[in-house]
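Q: I'm writing up a methods section and want to include an example of the input and output format. Could you take the sequence below and give the corresponding predicted structure tokens, formatted cleanly so I can copy it straight into the document?
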Amino acid sequence: MEAEKIKLQNVSRIYEIGKGQRIVAVENVSFSVFAEEFVCIVGPSGCGKSTLLYLIACLEKPSAGEILIDSKRVNEPNPKVGMVFQPDSVFPWLTVKQNIEFGPALRNVPAEVRQRIAENYVHLVGLQGFENTLPRQLSGGMKKRVDIARAFANNPEILLMDEPFGALDAMTKEKLQMELLQIWENERKTILFVTHDLEEALMLGSRVIVMSRQPNTIQTILDIPFAHPRSLLLKTQPEFQEYRRKLWELLHLNV
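A: Here is the clean output for your methods example:
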């Protein structure tokens, strides 16, 4: 975990809304994410967490500062970068298997290789038996499994995840957290994960970036010491709850 995979240097995003008014989405943000690292971002609503992901994905442009991926300035969407949003983004006219194969098909991956990729991720996200099912026949949690499988099947080096489990019930969320961790532990993609859930951030992240409101910038970055592989029993440990308390206090310093 040596090379800087993502680097933000003094990045701001300001929206001009007319009559001399403006909205500062993020202000003077600097941080790095190293190769194979899993970093979470937490902060109050409206602090610019999602904006940072959109800027890294080049879905928006910074008003100031620069963003580097593999030491190269980001000027356009990068095939190395994949993104998972909170709303379901599965294609409703494609089956589970076809959704997972979509990215590899665009990259002209041979059919037999695409099939092996789809089978692997169907197994990893627990969708065996649903390969030929259309999304309208799936629950919200199952559709989110398809989203995750499709993102990994496209083989990005960096995965940006914007509250992907935010709309799910607690038990489904925990299952998907464990499945995501298992995939990350096997494949070691670089992941930047936005969440409002403090326990989710501690369960998943090796570091947690804590953002503040007014100004919308980084308050602190917290190293998370828990070893891998992790299990849900981690949440019962006193050290885990102590880190949760630290995060809670940090967030309530600036509200």
